[in-house]
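User: Let's play a game. I give you a shape written as tokens, and you guess the letters that built it. Ready? Here's round one.
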């Protein structure tokens, strides 16, 4: 498994298991549990979840999947912005720990920017870190301007990652955020790496490259996010066939020809794109 370095040099897997929409329906819980367990069995040891997913239900599925193998896993969860205050965060973290059936979250992220002052949120993260309830903290859906603001705060150097939307069809972060994070030795976590399984998978460029590698377009989309040494990618899959495909992506090496074909159809950005629209859409869902 390819690894990526956190700012303190600790290595974490470059490929993880997403969990958005898990834990929402009791009828799907077993399928989701089987999918996560299969992913772990196939060596995918990073799991991304959030208190928001399934209103805590996704964390419960993760807790169940992690039983007996917690120490081998790197668990990422996220606090909702409304809870990211001095008093709200410790309580939210305790609830997450209980659902995850663990005594620590490996990486705890602010899901997106809310109304609590960022300095207060960072202070709350630091207290949890000192108490041993989280190992690392980070942010999500922060653009470069947000990261620059964060960098001015005390203890901001302990921010371990920014988790953002990144796939072949949404390359905005390449313009400034990915270089900024790389310069600060901070990995980016790419969410929705296969465009949520939608239209992106109809891409002719992905289909052509997939044929060259005897792979699927989804595998190429995931391998493409992993081509950057500073990116961790977290595709979500409930279908066991998808889990198997995704777990094998670390072995796919894209050639310069593959990358230029993808660039010709899905060009890199030529201007800054703010993340506001993404967040707005997410909040409305
Ligand atoms: N921080 C944030 O604000 C944020 C926002 C969005 C997502 N995330 C995180 O990132 C994770 C991934 O993003 P996402 O769930 O939005 O989208 P995604 O991983 O790009 O796509 C998931 C969809 O693709 C399908 N799929 C998975 N593997 C496939 C394959 N090999 N071939 C064809 N289809 C495949 C899945 O179907 P099946 O489930 O049926 O297998 C599911 O419908 C989330 O689960 C979550 O953990 C974070």
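Assistant: Ready! My guess for every position:
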């Amino acid at each position: 498994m390819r690894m990526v370095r956190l700012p303190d040099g600790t290595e974490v897997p470059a490929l993880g298991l997403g969990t958005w929409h898990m834990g929402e329906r009791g009828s799907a819980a077993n399928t989701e549990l089987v999918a996560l367990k299969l992913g772990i069995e196939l060596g995918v040891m990073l799991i991304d979840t959030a208190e928001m997913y399934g209103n805590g239900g996704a964390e419960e599925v993760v807790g169940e999947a992690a039983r007996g193998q917690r120490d081998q896993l790197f668990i990422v969860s996220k606090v909702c912005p409304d809870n990211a205050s001095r008093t709200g965060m410790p309580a939210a973290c305790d609830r997450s720990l209980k659902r995850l059936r663990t005594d620590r979250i490996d990486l705890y992220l602010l899901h997106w920017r809310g109304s609590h002052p960022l300095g207060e949120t960072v202070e709350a993260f630091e207290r949890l870190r000192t108490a041993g309830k989280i190992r690392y903290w980070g942010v999500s859906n922060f653009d470069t301007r947000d990261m620059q603001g964060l960098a001015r705060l005390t203890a901001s150097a302990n921010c371990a990652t920014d988790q953002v939307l990144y796939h072949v069809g949404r390359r905005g972060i390449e313009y400034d955020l990915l270089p900024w994070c790389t310069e600060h030795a901070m990995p980016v976590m790419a969410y929705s790496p296969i465009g949520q399984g939608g239209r992106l998978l109809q891409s002719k460029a992905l289909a052509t490259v997939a044929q060259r590698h005897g792979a699927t377009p989804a595998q190429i989309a995931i391998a493409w996010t992993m081509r950057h040494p500073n990116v961790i990618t977290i595709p979500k899959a409930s279908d066991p066939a998808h889990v198997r495909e995704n777990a094998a992506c670390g072995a796919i090496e894209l050639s310069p020809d593959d990358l230029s074909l993808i660039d010709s159809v899905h060009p890199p950005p030529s201007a800054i794109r703010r993340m506001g629209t993404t967040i707005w859409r997410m909040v409305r869902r």
